[in-house]
Input
Amino acid sequence: MNNNEYALIVAGGKGTRIKSKVPKQFLDINGVPILMQTINAFYEYAADIKVVVVLPEDDFPLWEELCLLHKYQKPIILQKGGETRFQSVKNGLEMVEGDGLVAIHDGVRPLISKDIIGASFRLAAVHGSAVAAVRLKESIRITDQDTTKAMDRSKFRLIQTPQTFKIDLIKKAYQIKEDSSLTDDASVAERSGHLISLFEGSYENIKITTAEDLIIAEALLKARD
Output
């Protein structure tokens, strides 16, 4: 393994769509908070990976309480987030040092596998970027006011994380001006002039956003036991 591989885990969710008073990254799945499950996945990939976790500063005390409650001692670099995901990733990148690679990952994707993490690092080392993506399973249509049109789903991909980059490339990319169309790290890198390389992700690598996602994630984790 490259001695300078980072995981930058962004966890700024508020749990609004999941209708929870507790931010969704702190909800339990099978007795363990989602964020801890996500961090653990990267340590399963490599024991000496460097992990940066970006949280809203107001959530620091709750995270510390959960670490005490669960006797959680995985080494992480904690960084405060910004008002937007763009700002949070940019803040997190300040904690990423030297040459090497960084995998940027959603804190609420706890089902990421070590094989996909490993593939992302290997491919990013060659291409500069490696973005997990899956093919669409269902038909899609594009809408325009009162009309709709069928689209060829084979030309589309659903984008996931990790989105892994050479450190110098993504740090430079995040110097561009933020705007609302930059919804992920790949779009930031692309806007700054870099080609984006996709690789096959996993349908199990779901982002926990709704109450239904919690049920699915629990079932998938139980199936792995």
Notes: The chain has one domain: 5-224. Residues 114-127 form the longest helix (14 residues).
